[in-house]
């Protein structure tokens, strides 16, 4: 059995896929039992959810620390606590600081969302940052994810955040900038411009909270963002027009 905290768009997607293989209990302060049952899961109390052998925490990064403080006294011995944040260093540090020693910790970052994985997980990427999960159990989790069609990538939290500062945070920064600029589909376009508008489409369904969190809590995001803006300014100067 798996416990899941949070039932936003990504929490609902997670519950739907996990419910294909096991019983999933969901704690949500806002969603109804009917909405949760619609994806094959069951609504439960926070105490019930935290008593499960696997606990997936699907809350915004900015709410992660407060959530961990709340659930720490409720976690059963040897429960594997799994986060799904799009940054890893801070969430992993918080879990190590706040969770009881009898809990196992596994940091993850599903590299997909409710839109891109709506129909299938095949070929999607999942990053794993194992902290204290026992090797044999970790291997079972690894194999389970591979069996769902995911490409599993192992990394340290630092390695993850350095790369994701470019591949995610910067991509979303460009997409948000295009939206602010007013970019839209044009009849007279190019393949390059189509790719730019695709970047815009990637971010338009995500919340501002997610965008802000991935920059605020990734220790490398500001550096990458500033380098990119400096590069644009340099290119602009070189035009001399």
Write the topology of this structure.
Blueprint: E1 2-5, H1 9-18, E2 24-27, H2 33-37, E3 42-43, H3 46-50, E4 54-57, H4 61-71, E5 80-83, H5 89-98, E6 104-111, E7 125-130, H6 135-147, E8 151-154, H7 157-181, H8 191-204, H9 208-216, H10 221-239
Parallel strand pairs: 1-2, 1-4, 2-3, 4-5, 5-6, 7-8
Antiparallel strand pairs: 6-7
Question: How is this structure best summarized?
Answer:
This protein has 241 residues and is α/β, with parallel strands linked by helices.
What's the shape? Answer: globular
Tally of helical runs? 10
Annotated CATH topology of the largest domain: Rossmann fold
Provide the gyration radius in Å. 19 Å
Approximately what portion of the residues adopt beta-strand conformation? Answer: 5-15%
Largest sheet: 8 strands, mixed
Please write the CATH class name of the largest domain. Alpha Beta
Mean pLDDT: 95
Low-confidence stretches: none
Query: Strand pairing plus helix content: what structural class?
Result: alpha/beta
CATH architectural name of the largest domain: 3-Layer(aba) Sandwich
Distance between the termini: 64 Å
* The CATH homology group name of the largest domain: NAD(P)-binding Rossmann-like Domain
Kindly report the spatial arrangement of strands forming the biggest sheet.
3-2-1-4-5-6-7-8
SSE arrangement, N to C: EHEHEHEHEHEEHEHHHH
Give the domain tally: 2
Helix content: 40-55%
Number of strands: 8
């Amino acid at each position: 059995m798996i416990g899941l905290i949070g039932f936003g768009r990504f929490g609902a997607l997670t519950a739907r896929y996990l419910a294909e293989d096991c019983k999933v209990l969901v704690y949500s302060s806002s969603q109804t039992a009917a909405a949760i049952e619609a994806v094959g899961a069951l609504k439960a109390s926070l105490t019930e959810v935290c008593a499960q052998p696997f606990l997936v925490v699907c809350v915004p990064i900015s709410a992660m620390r407060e959530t961990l403080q709340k659930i720490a006294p409720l976690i059963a011995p040897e429960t594997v606590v799994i986060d799904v944040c799009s940054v890893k260093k801070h969430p992993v540090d918080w879990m190590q600081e706040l969770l009881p020693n009898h809990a196992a910790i596994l940091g993850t970052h599903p590299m997909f969302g409710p839109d891109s994985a709506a129909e299938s997980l095949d070929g999607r990427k999942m990053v794993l940052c194992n902290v204290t999960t026992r090797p044999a159990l970790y291997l079972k989790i690894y194999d389970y994810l591979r069996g769902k069609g995911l490409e599993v990538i192992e990394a340290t939290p630092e390695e993850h955040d350095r790369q994701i500062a470019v591949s995610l945070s910067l991509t979303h920064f460009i997409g948000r900038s295009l939206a602010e600029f007013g970019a839209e589909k044009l009849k007279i376009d190019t393949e390059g411009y189509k790719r730019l508008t695709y970047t815009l489409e990637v971010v338009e369904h995500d919340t501002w909270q997610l965008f802000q969190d991935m920059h605020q809590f990734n220790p490398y995001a500001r550096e990458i963002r500033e380098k990119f803006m400096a590069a644009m300014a340099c290119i602009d100067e070189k035009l001399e027009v």
